[in-house]
Amino acid sequence: MFEVFEVTLQGIGYSVFNLSFVFGVWLIYVINKKLNTLDFYRTVSKKPYVYLMSDIILQGLLVGGVVSLVMVGIGIPLYFNEIFLMVIPLSLVLSVFRIRFICISYSMAILGLFTLVFSGQEVLGMVLPDVETHVPSVLILVGMIHVIEGLLVGITGGNRAVPIISKKDGQVVMGHIIQKLWVLPFSIIVLQLGTVGTGGIQMPDWWPMMEYTGYGEAIFFSLLPFLGFSGYSTIVYGETPKSRARFSGSLTAAYGLLLILIGRISLDNWLIQFLGVLLMAFLHEGIYLLEKSREKGKEPIYSIPAKGVRIMQVLDGGYAQQLGIKKGDIIEKVGDEDVVGIGQFLRMIKSKKDHVSIRVVDLHGKSHQHIVVDSRHLEHLGIRVMPEKPMFFYPYDQFSYIGMMDFIKRVEDSE
Fold first, then answer.
1. Do 50 and 26 meet the contact criterion of CB atoms below 8 Å apart?
2. Tens-digit pLDDT profile for residues 329-386
3. How far apart are CA 202 and CA 204, in angstroms?
4. How far apart, in whole angstroms, are the C-alpha atoms of residue 141 and residue 79?
5. β-bridge mates for residue 368, sequence order
6. Residue 169 DSSP SS3
7. Using N-to-C axis directions, what is the helix angle for 19-38 and 49-74, rounded to 10°?
8. Rounded to whole angstroms, how far apart are CA atoms 345 and 334?
9. Long-range contacts of 195-204 (CB under 8 A, 24+ apart)
10. Which of 228, 264, 251 has the alpha carbon at shortest distance from 139?
């Protein structure tokens, strides 16, 4: 088995060192560059792009590597067909309409439907194409990708969320755009008809785990370098980015497990395969709709308060961070004076003397008292507060309707 894993990793290497992978990385770079332009107030850590892209590439390698090793190790092959190579182009075409449609779940669902509908039958004197990809294995592949993606979203989804200032019902509010996109290099095992000559690898008697019928005995298995996209997009106002990421990550992982289960029990059952293919696309879209419904049921947590100023960023290493002040806190009092607005707050911190108390209220409504020993620290707290009269507003919920060309066009316009 060690030799099999070694060859699998070599196949992943072939997937990485090709133009399709480079093109996918470029697309991700374009999207992240566009998102960076939305951060008017420069609240996101300006990590150099080389480090950001390195993180994204490594995460994609992690997903692709784990899925490839598991599918090859236990024996879950796909049936090779030329239409299988259309997954990436199809994902890119779908992403033009909505950026979230770039995810492999949508393109694979279409491919699965083609497999079930087109089997070389004759209709009105026309012979339809024979599309064969082995739907149960497709379901398991997409399921495994989303189990690991769900873990990644839950752990890293709240990082580098881009804050935006919007208006809801006339009220200034702050939300966050979370956009995660990975290009996934695979080395997948494919079933092919015919016989293999010398140089093959002898596998254990129990391998492959999934039984394949209807192909005859003249079959062999080979490894195929393959690429796919996976991604997560959302906009959140009613909770913190980390809370939304944990919720979405758990749903995505559960979705993946369900697809794996359906794939396992759907062997030789056309109806279950058909149901699984439909669920592959509609459940993925259902997660997005559930998030939107969850969002509508919540009030924005970052808004301009009736009294005080709302903190939209606490700078790393700043004095406010040392005091324990957090993003989203409201500064209500400085000394004995109530804070009523940004202008007054700025004047207050310049006029106060030593040993000044600051009262803040956190996102849960709890009050905290902090003592500033040196008045010079008041002028250098290391915070940014939400603007009462922003110069720019991001249309509420516009992100849900953005497609790939919007990212590319707007980045070109900004250059």
1. no
2. 999 988 888 988 888 888 887 776 667 788 999 998 899 888 776 666 666 788 888 8
3. 7
4. 13
5. 360
6. coil
7. 130
8. 8
9. 195/220, 196/220, 196/222, 201/3, 201/4, 201/7, 203/4, 203/75, 204/1
10. 264
